[in-house]
Design goal:
With 151 residues, the protein is an alpha+beta fold. β1 and β2 form a beta hairpin. The chain is globular, with a radius of gyration of 18 Å.
Length: 151
Amino acid sequence: MRIDPWTDDACPITRAISVLGQRWTVLIIREAMLGRSHFSEFRRRLGVASDVLSARLSELVAAGIFEAVDYQRPGDRTRKRYVLTDAGHELMPVLGAMGKWGNVHMARPQGSAYRFVDTVTGEPVAVEFCRRDGTSVRPADVSLMLPEHHN
């Protein structure tokens, strides 16, 4: 795994970027969320160089986002498939927020086929800020704050 001075930073956003900030990382996670788990599937869908993909997958395993699980097809050698862990699944709102932002602020005429839906009902879902009582808060009405003793 890459040694990054950000991994020990006090800021959780900085620590997350130390894992998610590489060019292909979020796209690999997106593909896993779409059900892909084999190196060859990631390679084919993304067009990423094998050495880069291998490095990113190793970093994601080391970060606890993927678990590498052995599998073997009849007559073939043992290989790894990459399965999202709980920590990996918990990135769904992050990808949802990125997708929403991209659809709004970098929209394309052809749009995107990607949709976030409730697995049980198939109904569309959205990422949003909510108060404790569950009411929505617009992003423009949310502030990022630092506790007084950290200034």
